[in-house]
Amino acid sequence: MLTEKRRQLILTQLQQDKIIQSQDLVDRLGISESTVRRDLASLEADGKLVRVHGGAKLPRDLTPELDLSEKSVKNSQEKARIACYAASLVQDGARIYLDAGTTSLEMVSHLKGKDILVVTNGVNHGHRLLTLGIETILVGGRAKLNTQAVVGSQAVDQVRNYRFSHVFLGTNSIDAKLGLTTPDSEEAAIKQAVAANGDRVFVLADQSKFDKVSFHKFLDLADCMVITSTLTGELRKDYQDLTTLKEV
User: Fold this and answer.
1) d(CA 204, CA 247)
2) Which of 57, 80, 97 is the last residue of a domain?
3) Res. 185 pLDDT band, cuts 50 70 90
4) Does residue 200 or residue 70 have the better pLDDT?
5) Taking every annotated instance into account, which residue ranges of this chain make up the domain HTH deoR-type (predicted)?
6) 17-31, 100-114, 124-138: the lowest-pLDDT one
7) Domain total for the chain?
8) Strand order in the sheet with 166-170
9) Which of 73, 82, 95, 71 minimizes the C-alpha distance to 183?
10) Is beta strand 179-182 parallel, antiparallel or unpaired with respect to 135-138?
């Protein structure tokens, strides 16, 4: 079994059980104890688990996925400022992508009257954009109930055919070492595909998203500008050399 696949199986099992025993991994995967130790050490170095006596557990700060209603009420004033600034970057003629996040949804009202094309995987985003008379492409695929994001291989294949002047992504977590992460592998896949086809990539994230880690990485900090709320001096110092920060 390839190392990458084996370690992904370990992480999948850890997500289900919250804590795993080394001997269980030896039995389930048919590998040696030394291989288990190397795998757990490597995954711990990547911040994806914490080794304990006889096995491993999830990091305490591994951020879960919230549903859309929970996200929409968190830090609403900060999100409104971030959304307003992000929309100001969009000029007539732009071809933009809006991720299915609550902050990007806030952007939509600020785009009214602009001669642009918007591609989105957000069900709510598509409806609101059309209501405002904005030319819209809604990505096809499977719609998730909790986040109302369209995901899946069909969605990823579709966005790979487009080229964007501006990409606006949300994120669950930002970490100085691990970059930008999200709990869901399918949402990570479409974020990766879109970011690869964007001339300029912006991540919309208030200060509460910093110093946290979710399960699936989708982007390096060096590959985007992070538009955020006012950071503490310590957070600013930790991240200002890793990415372009815009505090609003």
Assistant:
1) 11
2) 57
3) confident
4) 200
5) 3-58
6) 17-31
7) 2
8) 135-138, 117-120, 95-98, 166-170, 201-204, 225-228, 244-247
9) 71
10) unpaired
